[in-house]
Amino acid sequence: MDYLSVVVALVVTIASIAIIHLLTRANKPCPPNLPPGSLGLPVIGQSLALLRAMRGDGGSRWIRDRIDRYGPVSKLSLFGTPTVLLAGPAANKFTFFSSALSTRQPRSVQRILGEKSILDIHGADHRRIRGALLEFLRPDMLRTYVGRIDGEVRRHLEENWAGRPTVTVLPLMKQLTFDIISALLFGLERGAARDALADDFTRMLEGMWAIPANLPFTAFSRSLKASRRARRVLEGITRGKKASQLLEHGNGKASSNSNSDLITCLLSLTDDQGDQLLTDEEIVDNAMVALIAGHDTSSTLMTFMVRQLADDPVTLAAMVQEHEEIARNKTDGDQALTWEDLTKMKLTWRVAQETLRIVPPLFGNFRIALEDTEFDGYFIPKGWQVFWTANVTHMDASIFQEPAKFDPSRFESQTMSAIPPCSFVAFGGGPRICPGIEFSKIETLVTMHHLVRQFRWKLCCKENTFVRDPMPTPLHDLPIEIKQRTAP
């Protein structure tokens, strides 16, 4: 099919859907007291406008302009579904804690990640799968991961940073976090299989937030194909580990490494009847989610920390002091980091939190109304999406004074106690708050420890801009000049 035929087919499809939509809507009574705003064109709605804005200034101005026009509650249509945009701490609290709402990803995300992921289930199934994931992320297990992550970071810096005059930060951070995730979540060693999975993963992300039209030449179509390839890899890993476990059990051996990686851990969990707690499909779908959650958010955070520290010598000096003191106080002769070392990196984590406040990796997220409900006097019909964004409260001057100013002291405990609940929402909130917060924290603290002790850097591009696609991406992926730091 040539390009013109594809365009004609697309136009005819959209026109047909629009006519059906208008005829159907004409026979339906309008619900009372809907929020202000417009649903826009059928199917398309405001999706293209939002995506253009995200790839322009990150989308923040588009959201602020909409709030200025309609107020903190408004209706629109995103990714083919009627949607209510909510803004502010009270709206965040309602979104995170209301029993009338459940998580709902755009159809494009559902098709790419799978129907059985923790992002799109609720009730008993959500509790079951979340509990299974938290088994891998127990505090005692997290302690054992510190040394393995430390080794991955050391190797990565030696191979990709040391001795080079310039590096491009974002792709290197993505490579690092992908290597960590591959080892700890999938037990996948370096080689051709890991490289192929990394390529498919990158293509998979391109169509996560897109109109779910599976037509040639679209980002969504490319992402679906990459998703199918990535899924086949994870299905193969799952089958292999399951066979190994069955062989061990058949030989009368107890598995000695049931928590060595996420898939092995999930396969080892059983219910009260001794049956596998999660189906293979649930394991693969949630491994896909973990791949994104553990890879993209951490790599984005660390990239923007590097960007901030390049122009912030005061904060950088304080961080260097913190990490040098930790290194000096290690008396066992082994410089590998431990869990106890990470608990001393309080300033570094405040710097990370302030970076997350100004540039949250997750622009926003969706819920779905399980029943008719209302917020702030406005009616939200059953089946409609609810859309919240982190940036609205993060950059609210009535909550965070001088919100554009980088100030890690905001996250000192006495300062945060004065902030309204559900104002800082970089990790979401409520029963569905990100289960991988501590894992991401370990990745970030270990990486920044070695980075600030080994290198100094300056930006190659002074323009301080970024776009979202859908994660924040700095100009040219943040190229920097680096120099090896001399020991104090």
UniProtKB/TrEMBL annotation:
One of its GO terms (molecular function) is iron ion binding. Heme binds at residue 434. CDD domains: CYP90-like. It holds the Pfam family p450. One of its GO terms (biological process) is sterol metabolic process. The chain crosses the membrane at residues 6-24. The keyword Transmembrane helix applies. The keyword Membrane applies. Keywords: Heme, Iron, Membrane, Metal-binding, Monooxygenase, Oxidoreductase, Transmembrane, Transmembrane helix. Pathway: Hormone biosynthesis; Plant hormone biosynthesis. InterPro entries: Cyt_P450, Cyt_P450_CS, Cyt_P450_E_grp-I, Cyt_P450_sf. Its cofactor is heme. Belongs to the cytochrome P450 family. This is Cytochrome P450. It comes from Lolium multiflorum.
